[in-house]
Amino acid sequence: MAGAYLYRLLKEEGITSVELFDVARSNSCGQKPCAWGVAPHSEYKRLVGRFLDPVAYELDHRDKIAVDGVEMRADMTTVHKPHLVEDLIGGAAVRFDPLDTHDFDRVIDATGCARAFLGPAEGPEMIAECAQYRVRSPDDLGLWFRTSGLGYEWCFPLGGDIFHVGFGNLSDIAKDYRPDESGAMGQDCRVLCKCMSRIRVSSPYYSRPFVAGNVVGVGESIGTVGPLGGDGNLYAMQCAEMLMEHWDDLDGYATSVLKRYEWMRREREALEKLLHGKVPVLKDIRVFTGHSKRVGIDIGPVQALKLFRQAVETVKERRRAESPSR
After folding, report:
1. I need a surface site. Which of 45, 131, 281, 284 has the fewest CB within 10 A?
2. Is the peptide bond before 138 cis (omega within 30 degrees of 0)?
3. In this predicted model, what pLDDT tens digit does every residue of 243-271 receive, in sequence order?
4. H or E element, residue 262
5. 2-317: CATH, from 3.50.50.60, 3.40.1010.10, 3.40.50.620, 3.40.50.1000
6. d(C-alpha 256, C-alpha 206), whole Å
7. For the whole prediction, is pTM greater than 0.85?
8. E strand spans, the chain
């Protein structure tokens, strides 16, 4: 998403000497796996509406979401991400051969977790493993999240009878996840495809450097993903905008990214407390509720604290189960 959106921005600026590179993917949609969710709807319309008709890619919009069975107000839209990316690049040729960074004045690393050209982040890194299924169901499975230890399970409606059902976690092996076994799917659901993914939830602060020689990172490669929610589609586009605005001032670009997404650093540090079985304090709860409101989910401090406590108990139970018997 970051690379496609930046390409469109460069084209708008009249920079036409741009070459696109990608890697071949085996999953049916041809995109890096994600739930195709965007929120809030107003920011999606602003970003996509700069070039295209945002309505053309909308699959489903919900004003309610269930979090661990509790219904809350929401502003969540699912979009056809593969079609959106395809239209952003507008039929431009994409190369799949190896890229030599010395052949270009500037290389934009939009390779997400790979950081294929930037090299390793200073870290410490925090990477979530994810598994996702696209399913067909005769029943409306709804829009929901369900916490599960150091991660969560999700269901995103894709319009009609199609849904994305997935699981992401910082400790479990996601490839073993089965939505039918977890009760996420109804009896008559049919699996259409499955894909695996890794998501960098380190935050930009822990994903530096953003620049290495003539290579500049954008989007998930520099950590613009919400650590608790794993959401990154809109942040990827926002990050591309910031790079375009600071094209000739990369120090200003780095400063802008760190300032705008400082909340991601605080959120990641709250997540680390959960990793160590500690109940976050009030300031951590405020970071979480602030993020929730930013994406249109109306969750209060009390409910947030309950979710955190539930996650802490799950961590402690897992540790007790993994400890050798005495």
Report:
1. 281
2. no
3. 999 999 999 999 999 999 999 999 999 88
4. helix 262-275
5. 3.50.50.60
6. 15
7. yes
8. 20-21, 37-38, 58-67, 70-79, 94-95, 107-109, 127-136, 144-147, 151-157, 162-169, 190-200, 211-212, 215-217
